[in-house]
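Structure, all two chains, one model.
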Amino acid sequence: MKGLISMETRLEYTSALTGAAFMFYEFKQVVILKEQGLSDKEIRAKVITENIFQHEKISSLKRGLPYILRRVNVLDEKLRSMVIEEGTEIGKIINLYAIMKTNRLFFEFMEEVIYEKLQSNNYILEKKDLNMYFTAKAEQNESIASWTEATIKKLKHVHSKILIDAGMLKDMKSGELNRIIIDDEIKSHLIEICDSKYLQAMGE
Amino acid sequence: MSNLNSRLEKIIPKIKEDKFIEGRGLGNEISFYVFDYKPEDELAVRDYIKIIKKEFSYEGSNRKIIEFDLYKMLLDITKDKRIFERIFEMEKKQGKDALFKALRTFANPQIFLQRIKEQMDGHNIVIITGVGKVFPFVRSHNILNNLQEVIDKTPVIMFYPGEYSEQDLHLFGKFKDDNYYRAFRLVN
């Protein structure tokens, strides 16, 4: 695996999440194909010709697939096999980790908003928290500042939705945050591969 | 205490009644019973539950009782899910409030129901205990509310350290759980 630091310096802010939200089912299917030894190219071909995700529209599938592949590609063998062999909850945590690891905007949201809240035992995520986060990012970064309002709106929605799908947010309406207890094995493994900052961002 | 003993002694005859297993007949009433007791009688009640289980454990008995101790279940589930050690670590590192929140999140009714479903295996009477010990992570009415979907019409007796008026559940006589009307008092 490539060094984390070099990877992160290369991560730009993107609005990719507008086209690929949590997508756990799709994530897991790709992990399975990867474990069968297929290359990215083969996976792409198989997913599209056989419509493995069973999406109605090929276009949305084509759009989301590169991001899912990228998520799967940051997993090492151990994490891949955990996604396949362990229960859904564990798979979802690993998916959340992979999203953080491949999406700077989401990772910083976890680090700067969610972690801060959990740290102070504040379990309500409000609309204004999301607004403030995106406003601050737009001020700091030109490319974010150039995104349309519709893109930002969609991203706010997707950020919350990912938290719901990962089990960290009860629902949009209440905004109630959950605190998850991360499985021993995932925790020690992430520490071992020097990825403990992602654990921290999940409130550990 | 004598009052408790005489109430406890009525449980076995009650379970032996035909209609206990057959259900209350009328409508599609589910057979949920609550045996409430003073929290200070916990140990006596626990001992008596052993007697009840023994009474019906002979070969060929048509009352097959299974006990679900919610507290023990919670510990077993955390071990299965490999977070047991993490609980202590979390309390130490992040404090009691964080632990409370995390366990409340973790201990949702579904993980209990799933396990109950897996373990039912031919038993035809369910006893629920550990309600006091598992407080405040699990509120028993949340389990009761969802229990029917996994056990259908199997009669359930919940041993409840508190008061049940056939309307309200008051844990330890102090904390009001949600209103609960669906259960009968097992013994008055």
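Chain A has twelve helices and no strands.
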